[in-house]
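Cross-posting from the chemistry board since nobody answered there.

I work mostly on the small-molecule side, so proteins are not my area. We synthesized S-adenosylmethionine and want a rough idea of how it might sit in this target. Sequence and SMILES are below. Is it possible to get a predicted 3D structure of the two together?
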Amino acid sequence: MSDDKKTSGPTSGERKLHVRVKTAKKRTVSQVRWLERQLNDPYVAAAKREGYRSRSAYKLLEIDDKFHFLKPGMRVVDLGAAPGGWCQVSVTRTHAQEGRGAKLGRVIGVDMGNMAELPGCTVMKLDFLDDGADDQVKAVLGGEADVVLSDMAAHSTGHRQTDHLKIMALCEAALEFAIDVLSENGTYCAKVLRGGTENDLLTQLKQHFRTVRHVKPKASRADSAEMYVLAQGFRRNRDDADED
Ligand SMILES: C[S@@+](CC[C@H](N)C(=O)[O-])C[C@H]1O[C@@H](n2cnc3c(N)ncnc32)[C@H](O)[C@@H]1O
C-alpha cells in the first residue's frame, strides 16, 4: 500500500494494457466481458501491485485527496466494507494501526458478507438494514465518529428504478446512523446512482451539513451510473441548521 500522503494508482503502462481472454469458448458472453474488463482495468492492476484489496480503494483515495476529511486520530465507520479497500485507506490515513504515531485512529468495517481481518480495523458482519444493526455498531463504536462512509451496494437487478430505490434505502440507513453518531464537523460519504440523490435525502443532507456535493472519481468507471454524495461540516446541534 502507498503511504498516507499520496495516491499513486495506475502507471501509464497499466493504462495502455489490452489483454484478450483466450479461453472465451468455455465461457458465457457476460463472463468473457467481465473478465476482459478486469484484465484491462488499470485500477485492478494497480490495486494488485500496491496491495489494495479492491480497485474501489482508489475512489476513496481520490475523493479524500481532493476534500481532505481523513486525518490522523479520526474514528471512521465504513458501511459495506468488504473486501476492505476503503478500510485499508482509512486505517492508513487515520493511523488506526497501533504504533503508527500518537494520534491513533479507529476504523470499524461493517459488511453483510465475509471480510478478512485487517490490522487496525474492527470487522463486523451485519446486514445494516436489519433491525438493531445500527445499535450494534454504536455499541462497538462507544461514542462519536468523525467520518461515516457507505459504499454499500445491493446486487444489480438490471431494472433502473429498482436499483435506484435499493441504493437510496442503503444511503438513508447510513445517513440516519451518521446523524446519530457524527461529531461536530463530521463527514458523510455515500455511493448513489447517477440521477443523483433524491430530493428528500438532499434536503436532509443540507439541513445537517454545511457543504453537500456529488463526486465522480476517475477510478469510478465512466460507464457506471455510480457516483458519491459527499457531505462535510456536520452540525451536531440541529438548532443552528439552515432550513434551505
Ligand atoms: C462495492 S462493495 C464495497 C467495496 C469496498 N468499499 C472496498 O473498498 O473494498 C459493496 C459491499 O456492500 C455490501 N452490502 C450491501 N448491502 C449491505 C447491507 N445491507 N449491509 C451490509 N453490507 C452491505 C456488500 O456485501 C458488498 O461487500
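Reply from a structural biologist on the board:
Welcome over. Reading the output above for you: The radius of gyration is 18 Å. The longest helix spans residues 160-181. Happy to explain the C-alpha cell format if needed.
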